[in-house]
Structure formats: structure tokens, C-alpha cells
Amino acid sequence: MSDTESDKEEAKRQKNIDSELKKSTSKSSDGAKSHGEILKQQLTEGLETYDKKASSLLLSSVTAGLEIGFSYLLICTVYSYFSDEMSEADSYKLTALVYPVGFIMVILGQSILFTEQTSLLTLPVLNKKRSLRSLLKIWGLVISGNLIGGYTIALLLLWIGPKLGIFDYAVVEKIALHATEYPSEVIFTSAILAGWLMGLLSWLMSSSRDTLSRIVIIFIITAMMAFTGLHHSIVGNVEVFAGLVSSPNIQFARYLNFQFFALFGNAVGGAVFVALLKYRAFVYNIDVK
């Protein structure tokens, strides 16, 4: 097949895919959204994010990094409060009940969180509406904003926590060590699973029609991540950066190692295991002849 014929075949294939997406509607009697309808909504939301100004994206991303810090505040407070009453392991498991709070604030508040947006931003590239270069550019902007917001809230909480007597630097160190005590390959694999779950969270949010069910979905997914100890790059950034600033036992190289593998793993989990698989599952059902 010549290049021209191949290009025509690809253009026809893409036209059929876009046509099927436009026709996608709810098919069940209870009004539940179909696979195609969810995919269409995800693509629309992803394209809307691409069309936003860089300054708006950065500010929204910084806001998400700040707001996710409230999860960290509650993690430190709960861990500190219960560590004298139960084992450290049990105290950390208990923090899974408060871990979702920051995510609820960020997601319902429409701030841009990297892990929640990973699959959302990948879909327009798979659908050939945006380029890989534009994806990497917007990822870089969102990650930068999330990290800046995380650094800022970490420094604020390091000051106010001890002042209020709700936690001390020893708690900050233990939480940072808990996140970074694993080999790089373990952090990477754990982060893939966390990214996978966050991508599914975004997908499930699009399938939901009311706020209460969305809160339940956010709680279930993020509490599961916390209880199992899966690595989330943005919450983990606050945890480990706070330890880096306050403890001599957290070195800069340790922080960089954690952040690299957590971000990389989250990106792979969201882009490959959610965006690619969900998109291909829809495409393979389309007659492209």
C-alpha cells in the first residue's frame, strides 16, 4: 500500500471514529451513560483544557497543589493524634479516612490536578485532535503548577502545625520516610497503579450525574490509594518536600528519586492503562471499511 493510500485509509478510519463518537448516546433504560458517551465527554473536557490560556492553566494547577495540602494537614494531624494510642502502622492506615478531603476540594472545585487530568489530556492525542508535543507541554505546565502549590502549602503547614500543637517535625519525618523507604522500581510500579486509579476516577466522574455520587467515587478511589500505600506524585510531593525541609534524614537526592518515579509511574498508569485501553476498546468496535 502506498503512502497516499495509507493516508486515505487512516483519514477514513478517523472520520468513522469521530462519526461514532458524535452518535454516542445513553442506551440503558436507567439513563446510564454509554462507553462512547463517556469517551465523548472526556474528549470534550480534554480539548477545553488545551484551549485555556497558559496563565489560567498554571494558576489552576498551583491552586490544586495548594488545596491537596489539606489532605496532608489531616494526615499529619490524625497520625500525630492516634500514634500514642495505636501502632504506627495502624495510625497510618487510619489516615486513609481523611486522605480524600483534599481530592474532593480539588476535583469538585475544578482545579487542575496532574494525575486526575493525565488520561483526560491524553485522549485528544489518541483521537488526533492534538499533538504529542502539545500534550507534553501542557503536562509540564500542570506538573509545575502542582509542585509550586505543593511547596508553598508544605512550608505553611510546617510552620502552623507545630505552632498549633497538632503535629511536630517528628511526624513530618515519619510520613516522608514512609513514602520514600521503597526501592525505585517499587515506587514506580506503585505509582502506575495509583495513576491507573486516578485515570479511572476521571472516567467514573464523567459517568456520574450528581455531586453526592461523585464525592463517594472520589472517596472510594483515593481512600483505597491511601490504605494500600500507593504513591501519588502530588500528595507525595508535599509529604516528601516537607520532610526534606525539616529533617536531615531526607536528602535532596532522595526527594528527586521519589518525585521522578512517582510522576513517571502516575503518567504511565493514567495514559496507558486508562486513556489508551478505554479508547482502543471503543475504536476496535467500529467498522472502518
From TrEMBL:
Taxonomic placement: Bacteria, Pseudomonadati, Bacteroidota, Cytophagia, Cytophagales
Q: Which GO terms describe its molecular function?
A: formate transmembrane transporter activity
InterPro entries (alphabetical) = Aquaporin-like, For/NO2_transpt
Topological type in the membrane: Multi-pass membrane protein
Where are its TM segments located?
57-82, 94-114, 135-160, 186-204, 216-235, 255-277
Any idea where this protein resides? Membrane
List the Pfam families hit by this protein, alphabetically.
Answer: Form_Nir_trans (PF01226)
Quote the biased-composition stretches of kind Basic and acidic residues, using this chain's numbering. Answer: 9-23
Keyword list (alphabetical) reads: Membrane, Transmembrane, Transmembrane helix
Residue segments, region Disordered: 1-35
Species, as recorded: Echinicola pacifica
Protein's name in the database:
Formate/nitrite transporter
List the record's Gene Ontology CC terms alphabetically.
Answer: plasma membrane
